[in-house]
Amino acid sequence: MTGKKQLKSRIRARMAKTGESYTAARLHVVERTELPSDGAWTFHGGRHPNSATIAGVLANQGVTISEPMVFLAGGGLGAGYILWEFKHDDSRHLVLGFRNQWQYHDRWMAKTLGRLGVAFTAHTTSGAKGAAKLLAGELDAGRPCIVLPDRHHVGYWGFPAHMDGYGGHPVVVYRRDETHVFVDDRGTVPIRVPHARMDAARARVSSYENIAHVLEPARIDSGRLAEAALAGLRDAAAHLSATSGSFSLPAWRKWSRMLVDTRNAKAWPKVFADGRGLAGALLSLWEGAEPVGMDGGNLRDLFADALDEAAGLLGLPLGGLAGEFRRIHGLWHALAETAFPFDVPEFARMRELTAGIRESLLSEGVPADGGTELWALRAEVDRIPPIKDVEALFADLSGRITEIYRAETEAVAALREIVS
Question: What is the distance between the alpha carbons of residues 282 and 108, in angstroms, rounded to a whole number?
Fold first, then answer.
C-alpha cells in the first residue's frame, strides 16, 4: 500500500509540475504493462476525449487504428477563443478551442466516422425516461455508447453548483448493473456513475440533450484510412485558413490584441480591471493548453503524431511539419507556464489539486478529496490574485500568443501547399 501511495504521489507531482497528461506522467515513473480491462472491455486510455472515445470503441471491436489517425480524420486542429462574462454570479470564463469544429460535437462525430467508413446511429431522444431506456437497451445488447454528460451533474469531477450547465466532453458508457453505468473516460479503471446522475447529466447539455452515438462493427483497410487522412489534412488546411476571429487561427490574433487593448470593453485590462476572476481565467488557460486538463491540451503534439503516421501512409513530405507542430506545442506549454507559474504558491497548490483529481479518476475511478479545496482556493484568489504586475503579464502573454499565431499560420500555409 505504501508503494502504491508513493507511486500516485510521484505521478501527481509530475503532472502538476509539467502539465503532462496522466498517461505521459505515468510512463516516466512506471514501466509499461498490459492494457487494463473490466470484463470484456479493455481500457486504451487516450489524449483527447472526442478522438479517444472513437478509437477506444473501435479497438474494443477489434479495429486497429491509432488515436492520432482518428483525430486527423476529423480534420485535426482547430482554434478558438471566447471570454464569457456572466452577471448572475459575476464570473468570467475563458474558453479555448484546439480541435477542428470544437464547438460542434455532432458534426465532428459524423464527419470523422463518415470518413473512416464507420456506420453509426446517433440517438437524440429528448425525453429523459426514453433516453435512459434507450441507453439501457443498447448496453444490455452489448453495444457501448458515446455520450455527452454535463461535468457538474455527472459528479465525479467535483464541480460546484455554480458550474451547472457549463458543458462537458464525450465519454464511453460500456456496461451497466442495477444501480450504475460504467464509464471509460480515458483511464485505466471504470468510473461508476449512478443511473439517475448519468441521466441528469446527459439531459443537462442543452445543445446535445441526451445524444448517444452507437458505432457499428467496422473494417478500416489501408485504402480507406489513406482517403480519410488526406481528407482530414485538406480539411485542417482549409479550416485553419478561414477568417473567423472566434473559430479559426485569427482567434489567436484577436486574443493577443485583447490582452493589451485598453479601450475595448471585452479586453482583458477592462474585464479584469479590479482583478476579480483573473486567477480563474489563468487557471483555465493552463488547463486548456496543457494535457493535464480535461480536454487533452492544445493537441499540437497529437496532430504532429498524426502527420508522422500520414506521411508514411500517403507518401507525402510531412515530417518537417510534424517537427514544427511539436515546436508549437512547446510554445503553448511556455505560454501556460507563464500564465500560471508553479513558483507562485497559490498557483502551485491549484495545479497540484487539479493533477490529483485527474490522477485519482484515471487510476482508481473515484474523485480525489481535493475538489472542495480547489474551488475554495480558486474563489479566494479570484478575489485577490497573487500577481504583482498584471500589465506586464498581459503584455508577455500577448507577445507569446502573437508568436504562436505567426508560427501556426506559416505551418498551415505549408500544409496547404503540400495537400493542394
Answer: 28
Q: How many other CB atoms are found less than 10 A from the CB of residue 394? A: 22
**Distances, alpha carbon 383 to alpha carbons 155, 279, 288, in Å:** 26, 8, 22
Beta-carbon contacts of residue 372 (< 8 Å; ≥ 6 apart): 158
> How far is C-alpha 192 from the chain's CA centre?
21
Domain end marker among 215, 232, 255: 215
Compute CA distances 358 → 38, 223, 298, 306, 378, whole Å. 20, 38, 17, 25, 17
What does the block give as the cell for 207?
445543445
pLDDT by residue, tens only, the chain of 420 residues: 456 667 778 888 888 878 777 777 776 666 656 799 999 999 999 999 999 999 999 999 999 999 999 999 999 999 999 998 877 667 788 999 999 999 999 999 999 999 999 999 999 987 889 999 999 999 999 999 999 999 999 999 999 998 998 889 999 999 999 999 999 999 999 999 999 999 999 999 988 999 999 999 999 999 999 999 999 999 999 999 999 988 999 999 999 999 999 999 999 999 999 999 999 999 999 999 999 989 999 999 999 999 999 999 999 999 999 999 999 999 999 999 999 999 999 999 999 999 999 999 999 999 877 789 999 999 999 999 999 999 999 999 999 999 999 999 999 999 999 999
**What letter does residue 380 receive in the DSSP assignment?**
H
Domain count, the chain: 2
CA dihedral over 100, 104, 109, 110, signed as positive or negative: negative
Same domain, 255 and 205: no
Task: With H, G, I as helix, E, B as strand and everything else as coil, classify residue 297.
Answer: coil
Task: Name the 3-class secondary structure at 244.
Answer: coil
Domain that holds residue 149: 36-64+120-215
The DSSP bridge pattern shows strands 171-176 and 180-184 to be: antiparallel
Return the HEC string of 117-138. CCCEEEECCCCHHHHHHHHHHH
Report the distance separating Cα 115 and Cα 3, nearest Å.
Answer: 46
In this structure, the answer to whether residues 135 and 200 fall within a common structural domain is yes
